[in-house]
Structures are given as C-alpha cells and as structure tokens.
Write a structure and sequence with these properties.
The complex is a heterodimer of chains A (493) and B (489). Chain A has 493 residues and is mainly α. Chain A has 19 helices and two strands. In chain A, strands 1-2 form a two-stranded antiparallel sheet. Chain B has 489 residues and is mainly alpha-helical. Chain B has a domain of 193 residues. Chain B is 76% helix and 3% strand. Chain B has a two-stranded antiparallel ribbon with strand order 1-2. In chain B, helix 17 packs antiparallel against helix 19. The longest helix of chain B has 32 residues. Classes of the chains: A mainly alpha (493), B mainly alpha (489). Chains A and B meet through helix 16, helix 17 and helix 19 of A and helix 6, helix 7 and helix 8 of B.
Chain lengths: 493, 489
C-alpha cells in the first residue's frame, strides 16, 4: 500500500468538491433539475470514495499485522515525513464516516435547495470536509493529523456561517477564534514534542514516552496538545462555542458537523490519549479525565434540560455525548474501547438524526418546545422519527444507543474510577427525562394554532434511513462490533 | 424445533398486520392479535411435558459474541407458568379492548403497541441471557408509556411520564448490575454467571445484589419506590391496568427470584449472612400493610385495586425472602400467577363498571349486583381470590407461603415475627375486598343510575378469565407441579 492508496478517498472527495461548482452552474444554465444532479453527484462521489476505502480495508484485513504504516519517505520513521496509519480503529471510523456522511450530505441537498445561488459552494464544502476528516483519521503522525484537522475545522466554520445571518456569523467567528486558540496550543505542544523526540510519528513518540527517563517536559507538551484538542472537542469548560455554532448553523450543517466533525475530534482525543499517551506507561491521566467526563456530561445534560429551543437542546446533547465518550476512554479496557468506537458511530447517527428532524420542524417555523405542542398528530412521521431518536438517546433497547451506553457504563465498572458509572447512569436518567419532555410536548399537548401542516416527504427519506440503521444496529450490534473486535489488541497492557 | 423463538416472534410479525388491518377494522385487528397470542400460548403449552420431565428447555441462537451474549431462550417450570398466565391475560385484555376502547381514536396504533408490549411481556420470562432480559424488560416500558399516555384518562401523559422516569431509573440500576456481572464473569448467561460468581468476593456481590434488587423493586412497586404505581394503574385504560398489575409488576417479582436470588445471592457463600433476606422480608411487610391500609381508605375504584397490588407485591416479596425454603418460594411464584389472573380480572370488572356507569368514585356506586349480574359474579370471584378466601386462587398460594413461613420460622428465629405480622396483614386484605364488594355491588345506591352488563366482548373476556381464576383455585396442581419441579432441584 502506498501513500496514494491511503489518500485515495480524500483525493476523490477533493476532486469532486472542486468540480461541484462549475458542474452545478452548468446544470443550472442548461435548465436541468439541479437537485437530481446533485443527488447523483453526491452518491457518485461517495461510492467512488467507498471503493477506495474498501481497497484499503481489503488490503489491511488480508495481511497479518495489526497496523500498517505508510510514509512519504523511504524510511518509515524519518523525522519529518507525512505518515499514515491504517489499523482497525481508523478503518472502522472511516466506514462510519462514509455511512453517516452520505446520509447527512443527501439531507443537506434536500434541506438547502440547489436552486439557491451560492449553494454550490456549500456542497463543495461538505464534500471536501468529508475528505479531510477521512485523511485525519488515517493520519499516522501528529503533524499530518494537525494539518488535516485544521483544514476540517476551517471548512466547518464556513458551513456554520453559510446563511450569513447575524447569529451565524457571530457563532462562526466564535468557533474560528476557538479553533485558532486551540491550534496555538497544539502547535506549541507539537514543537516541544518534536524538539524532545526528534519525531512526530505516533509509534516513535509512544516509544520515547514509554522509555525515556525524564518525561516531565514531554508531559507538558502533551498537556498542551490535549488541551488544544479538548477545546476542539468541546469538553466542559471549553464548550461554549459549540451550542452557539450548532444552533446558528443551518440544520443540515449541524447534522453534518455532529456526524463527522464531532466524532472526528473525539477520535483524535482517543488516538492521542489511548494510543500515544498510554496511561499505564507514563502518567495516570485517568482520574483527571474522569473529572472532566463527569463535568462534561453533567453540564451538557443540565443545560439541555434548561433549553426551550429544541435545536439548542440537541447541541447540548452533543456535549453530554462527549462526556459519555470520555467515560469509556477513562476505563482503558477492551470493552471500553469497543464501546467508544461503537458510541462514535451511534452518536454520529443519533445527533445528526436529531438535527435533521429539528431542521424539518424549523422549516415549518417551529423552534421552541411550545411550538412543538401537538405536532405528534399533525406531523406523525417526523414526530415518530423524533421518538426513535429520543429513545435511542435515552438508552432504551431496540435502539443502538442502548448497546453503546451499556458498553460505556460497563467498561468503567472495574476500573479505578467506578463511581463514574453511577454519575453516568444518573445522567442517563436525566437525559431520558428531557427527551421524554419533548415527546410529552409532541403528543400530550394540544396545538396552539389550528394550522395545517404538510410534512416534507423528501426530507423524511434520509431521516428514516438513519432510523432504520439505528434500529438494525440496536438489534444486531454484532454487525459493527465484529468489525472492531480485533481493535482491543492495540490497547496498552 | 424453534418453539420459543416462533412463539416470541409471532407478536412481532403481527405488528404490521394488526396495524394494517386496524385501519380498516379495529375489531378484526384485536381478534387477530388475540388469536396470535393464543397460538403463542399453545406453542408454549407444548413444552409443558418436556419441562415436567427434563426440568428445563433451552434454545440458543447466535447474537452478539463480542459481548458474550447469545440469543438464549429458555423455560423452566417457573417461567413457563408465568408465560402461560401472561399470554392468557394478553388475549383476554385484547378482546376486552374491543368494546372498551371502541370510542377512542387511533386504535390501529393501540393494537400495534399492544403487540409490541406482548413481546416484552413474554420475552422477559423466557430468556436466560441478561442482556436479552434487559431488552424485554425495557420493551415492557415503552409501549406502556404510550398506551397510558395516549389512551388513558385525565392527566394521562403526566402520569405516563412519572411511570417512565421511575421505572427507567430503576432499570438503569438493573443495567449497572448486568454490567457488573459481565465484568466479573465475562458471560451474561445467568446459569454460567452463577457458577463463576461463586468465586467472586461476596463484598463485591453485595453491591451487585443491591443494584439489581433496587431496580427490580421499583418495577415491583415495593414501598418506598411505589409512587408511580397508584397513578399509572388508575390512569391507564382498564385492559392496560390489567396487564400492568397482573404481569408487569409480577415480572419484577420474577426477576428478584430469578436474578437477585437465583443468580447472585445463591452464588454467595452461606457465611455471607441472611441480612439480605431479612431486608426483603421487612420491605415486604411494610408494603403489605401500606397497600392494604391505603386500599381501605381510598374511594376511587381503580386506586383501591392499585393499592391492593402494592400489598400483594409485599406478600410476594415476603415469600421470596423465605429463600431457599421450598414451600415459601413455590407459594411466592404461584402467588404471582394467581395474583396476575385475579388482579387482571378485578381490573376488567372495575373497567366494566366504569365503562357502564361513567363513575369512578365508589361512594356514587352501589346496588350494581342486580343490574350487572355477570360483572358482579366475576368481580366477586376476583375479589375473593385477592382477599384470600378459600377456595379461590390466591388462598392456595397464600396458604403455601404461610406453610413456608412457619417452616422457616422453625429453623430461623427471625421469621417468627414477620410471619405473625403477615398473617395480620391478610385480615386487612380481606377487609378492603369486602368493603369494595359491598360499596360497589351490594349497598343501597345513593344515586340512581340505569346500567346493564357491558357489551359482548367485554363480558366474554371477563367470564373466560373468571373461569380461569376459578380453575386456578380448585385445580392448582398443574402450576404447583411445574413450579415445584424447579424449586426442589
């Protein structure tokens, strides 16, 4: 496998992204149906990328090593080289991105009409961000990871700002500032790491960290890197930008960002904490992370409980989800890692599903809980999808959210921070309470105005795709879990 | 043969059918659902000889190997008895709904939810895998929430909300227990787990036991975690109340026996002490008294029955605390069966009375015996059974419980006082039952109301269920044999 093979999906997305703008303009000029064209175009680019990913996966699974390193230079561990790493975790994540990404991109086309004058840029951004997230996931050294991740973050800002309303511009600016601060932290940490170890490659750094006598300075470096990524992941207390950004962005952007960019940032945190800064080797960050985890989920859920605006509520749920993910990272157990990876996938679908449904409601002018009163009867299909999302978030079986939560909570029971399970469980009850409140508004209240609602049938197609995937994964989680069962061999200790 | 799998999947397959047919005719949909549950019932009945001769019957399918879970369906005498009574109640409740729900809207959804609920109700008794158990456990919750909310009385969604949060919070404790068992043993099969748990430090097992039991106690509505029950039972439509009070809280009792006692407690060494059982016993007594007293004071017809359920779950809890004395446990399980049938019947008759008179307060009723003779007879059968009057069903099981209790008191001095208190509690049970019958059916009416017996399907299902309760009382052998076969192992 060479570097082109690994980058193939990203290259496909980049080319498709660049071609989107002229092609869509051409289609408009020819007076063809731009929506049909865009649907075909998105499906085409995703399938082309999927072919690339399948090639990587096939090659990876056909050999016996637990991971493959690919470098731009001859010697794999040369000091500065663009390195890529293919292992079970990254292959699994990329597959998850392709599934969640394709559905949310299709939703994007249906939500933001291709007839809008600047929409071609929006679609181009969706495609290229997907590409960079995939490249981030395959990165094998800290610099490559950094570069691709910054590209992702920059693209995300524009996805937030697309509507150019006052709020969205402000939120995008806030997001951008946070990202820049974060990258300042990260780049400072990276320079220290490079100065101390002479390399940024994951495995070299890991080895040095495990064997070097004086690791004090390296730890400082990692503190910077982790803080930087914690800001981008929106761990409390660095979370302020996220609810603003996701609320102000068009619903399709929020759905896309929560499906890909959010999960991408958790993935980085997982990679850095679990595979480079291995807790058993150098420093036990588990207790610190446990505190942040408890804080993040509690704050996320409490703020979600306090919201009247449904979209903002879902944004806070994204934060709570990070807290749950941190539980699993903290446990450093095989079931924790598997649970984490499964949670990524499920959370990607759940949150984007929730944002998509909110988008449908917003299109009807329904923003707050009060507005949703009685919609269970007027918009039965949309409301039913929301019930599925809510039950999945609440951790009710038949939905994939249950298996994810079960694994996450179980993983921590035997670690040194077992109390975290109790906090997680209480949070889960809190979460089911505020989701049930939405269901309560949907079905129990009487509508405020006697207006006729017509459900946008087209938008329901991607929504129900996600509902079906969530239910299937909830009943047969083995479909995804079998793929990552070998990931546990990568764990330290 | 995949008997159990088919019996379990039939209600699942019926969801789209019932929904589709329900859009044309709700009556036919209900009859289809009733028929399907009877087919499931007959499938399960074919296993009776196997279970009687081989003690248990297991089917296992591939499911989630990564989590040490396979799709294991199993029955022994205990689960078989409870599965039988569950399916009978589901069939009866469905037929009862035809007339009872006639005037309500969205009936296709109602029957589809009822089919979904059936899977949960049946599944929870017939699996030996903890994760699968939890699936069914929560599957009892979601359809119930929507049925109470969507088709209940006044503030039904608020009540359903309370019900959901309470029982979901309880279920989360169960989930913690399941996770702990998995982390300690690496398996989720209750029988394998029990063997491996025997090697685990009892100090840790105490926590697991507490977590499980708290979770189950919420579902069982043991005082002080009973707050959801009176509201949920009284707000739900009558067929749902019958299932709630008959099966759902009974499932809590079953789970305490099967998982808390059968898997975790029995894995602990005898030196670990009996304090756990004493705690169960004390809470059982508190619930028995609390339920009876409030049932005596209540005037709302359905709330009386709801409080009586708390009281009876207290009996069951007390019976389970006699573990491992055979008569006590047999009595406890038999009580779950008898109580399910009798309480279901009592809710049917109460529903019939409310449906016909439109009144809930028993002070406004009276003299209905001459106007609704069939309902009155069924009501007397149910109420006498609940009150523990021989030869009705619950008398037999309460008798067995007391035989077990006296045996236990003979060897463990602790049980002496609880047994005495429990005997006193039965007097109060008798009191509220007699008051109920007197006020509703016999006393001279204060307000004149013109009523007659309820429509066809309600009467049919009530009479059939009443016949079942009578059979349970005069011929308890079948269930006793089934249950006893397991207990004596």
């Amino acid at each position: 496998m060479n570097i082109l093979d690994v980058l193939l999906p990203t290259i496909v997305f980049t080319i498709c992204s660049i071609l989107t703008v002229p092609l869509l303009r051409l289609v408009r000029k020819r007076r063809l149906n731009p929506q049909h064209f865009m649907l075909a175009w998105i499906i085409l680019s995703f399938s082309a990328a999927a072919v690339g990913v399948v090639r990587i996966a096939a090659e990876y699974f056909s050999q016996s090593q637990s991971f493959i390193q690919i470098s731009s230079t001859e010697t794999i561990l040369a000091p500065i080289s663009t390195g890529f790493l293919v292992d079970t975790v990254s292959v699994y994540m990329v597959i998850a991105y392709l599934i969640a990404g394709s559905v949310s991109c299709i939703y994007g086309i249906l939500h933001i009409s291709p007839k809008e004058s600047l929409s071609e840029r929006y679609y181009a951004l969706l495609l290229i961000v997907t590409g960079t997230v995939i490249a981030t996931t395959f990165s094998g050294d800290l610099l490559t990871l950094f570069v691709f991740w910054e590209a992702t973050a920059a693209g995300s800002c524009f996805l937030v700002a697309y509507r150019k309303s006052r709020e969205s511009l402000e939120a995008a600016l806030k997001y951008l500032v946070m990202v820049i601060i974060a990258s300042g932290f990260i780049i400072y940490g990276l320079s220290l790491v490079y100065g101390l170890t002479g390399s940024l490659n994951f495995s070299t750094v890991k080895e040095v960290l495990a064997t070097a006598g004086n690791t004090q300075l390296l730890l400082v470096a990692f503190a910077f890197i982790v803080t930087g990524y914690a800001i981008e992941t929106a761990i409390v207390p660095f979370h302020m930008w996220l609810p603003d950004a996701y609320t102000a962005a068009p619903a399709s952007s929020s759905a896309f960002l929560s499906a890909l960019v959010d999960q991408g940032s958790y993935y980085i945190l997982l990679r850095v904490l679990l595979f480079i800064l291995t807790p058993t080797a150098i420093v036990d960050w588990r207790f610190t992370m446990a505190i942040f985890s408890a804080l993040t989920m509690t704050v996320g859920n409490l703020f979600a409980l306090a919201q009247q605006n449904v979209k903002r509520m879902v944004s806070y749920v994204c934060i709570a989800d990070i807290g749950y993910n941190l539980i699993a990272i903290t446990s450093v157990t095989p079931i924790g890692l598997q649970g984490n990876l499964f949670f990524f996938f499920v959370a990607a679908m759940e949150t984007s599903l929730a944002f998509m449904i909110t988008g449908v409601f917003n299109k009807m002018g329904l923003n707050t809980l009060e507005d949703l009163s009685g919609m269970g009867r007027k918009m039965p299909l949309t409301s039913l999808a929301f019930v599925a999302a809510a039950l999945s978030f609440s951790g009710v079986p038949l939905f994939a959210g249950f298996i994810a939560k079960y694994m996450v909570f179980t993983s921590v029971l035997q670690s040194s921070v077992a109390w975290l399970a109790l906090i997680g469980v209480s949070n889960s009850v809190l979460q089911s309470a505020y989701f049930l409140r939405v269901i309560h508004y949907l079905y129990a209240k009487t509508p405020m105005e006697a207006m006729e609602m017509k459900e946008p049938r087209k938008l329901l197609v991607p929504i129900y795709c996600l509902v079906i995937i969530i239910v299937i994964l909830g009943i047969f989680p083995a479909l995804a879990l079998d793929l990552i069962s070998s990931a546990t061999t990568l764990l330290p200790g | 043969m995949q008997t159990l799998l088919i019996a379990l999947l039939l209600p699942a397959l019926s969801i789209p059918i019932v929904y589709g047919v329900g859009r044309k005719s709700a009556k036919i949909a209900a009859l289809i659902l009733a028929l399907i549950s009877l087919v499931s019932l007959s499938l399960i009945l074919t296993l009776v000889p196997t279970v009687l001769s081989q003690d248990q019957y297991i089917e296992s399918y591939h499911w989630i190997p990564t989590l040490g879970s396979s799709f294991t369906l199993f029955v022994d005498g205990i689960s078989l008895s409870l599965a039988i009574v569950t399916l009978i109640l589901v069939a009866a409740a469905t037929v009862f709904s035809i007339n009872y729900m006639e005037k309500k809207s969205s009936l296709p959804q109602y029957y589809a939810l009822l089919s979904l609920l059936t899977i949960g109700l049946l599944g929870v008794f017939i699996t030996s895998n903890l994760l699968l158990f939890y699936f069914f456990w929560e599957l009892m919750l979601v359809p119930t929430y929507f049925i109470i909310g969507g088709w209940g009385y006044r503030e039904s969604f608020a009540t359903a909300f309370k019900f959901f949060i309470f029982t979901h919070a309880g279920a989360i404790f169960v989930l913690l227990g399941i996770g702990a068992v998995y982390m300690l043993t690496g398996t989720l099969d209750i029988f394998e787990a029990q063997t491996i748990l025997a090697t685990v430090d009892p100090g840790v097992l105490n926590w697991v036991l507490a977590s499980f039991t708290i979770g189950f106690a919420v579902k069982m509505a043991i005082v002080p975690v009973h707050m959801w029950l009176p509201d949920a039972h009284s707000e739900a439509p009558a067929p749902m109340s019958a299932l709630l009070s008959g099966v759902i809280i009974g499932a809590g009792g079953y789970a305490v026996l099967r998982i808390s006692l059968g898997t975790v407690y029995s894995a602990m060494p005898p030196s670990a002490g009996n304090e756990f059982l004493y705690v169960l016993s004390i809470f059982g007594i508190i619930s028995a008294f609390y339920g009876s007293f409030l049932a005596l004071a209540e005037t709302d017809i359905k709330r009386i029955i709801a409080y009586s359920s708390i009281s009876h779950m207290g009996y069951t809890m007390f019976a389970l605390s006699l573990f491992p004395f055979a008569q006590g446990i047999t009595g406890g399980v038999l009580h779950l069966v008898n109580h399910a049938a009798s309480k279901g019947l009592l809710f049917f008759t109460a529903g019939a009375v409310m449906h016909q008179t439109g009144v809930r307060n028993i002070k406004e009723m009276g003299g209905l015996a001459s106007k609704m003779p069939l309902t009155a007879i069924a009501s007397v059968v149910a109420a006498f059974s609940i009150g523990g009057i021989p030869p009705f069903a619950c008398f037999i099981s309460e008798f067995l419980i007391f035989v077990g209790a006296v045996t236990a008191a003979g060897s463990v001095s602790f049980y002496f006082l609880p047994t005495l208190l429990m005997l006193i509690a039965t007097v109060f049970s008798l009191a509220y039952v007699l008051r109920y019958i007197w006020k509703v059916f016999l006393e001279a009416p204060t307000v004149k109301i013109e009523v007659k017996d309820p429509p066809r399907f309600m009467t049919i299902s009530t009479i059939l269920l009443a016949a079942f309760v009578v059979i349970l009382g005069i011929y308890p052998r079948l269930f006793i044999d089934l249950i006893h076969a397991v207990i004596t192992i």
